Amino acid sequence: MKYIDEFRDSSLVHRLADRIRAAASHGREYKFMEVCGTHTMAVFRFGLRDLLEPNIKLISGPGCPVCVTPVEYMDRTIAIARLPDVIITTFGDMMRVPGSRSSLYKEKAAGRDVRMVYSTDDALDIAKRNPGKEVVFLGVGFETTVPTVGASIITAARQGIGNYSVLCAHKTMPEALRWLVADSRHGIDGFLLPGHVSAITGMKPYEFLAKEYNTGCVAAGFEPVDILQAILMLVNQSKPRVEIQYKRIITPLGNRLARSMTGMVFEKCSSVWRGIGEVKDSGLKIRREFSGFDAALKFKVKVTPAHENKVCICNMVLKGVKTPLECRLFGKRCTPDNPVGSCMVSSEGTCAAYYKYGRR
Question: Are strands 86-90 and 242-244 parallel, antiparallel or unpaired?
Answer without folding.
Answer: unpaired
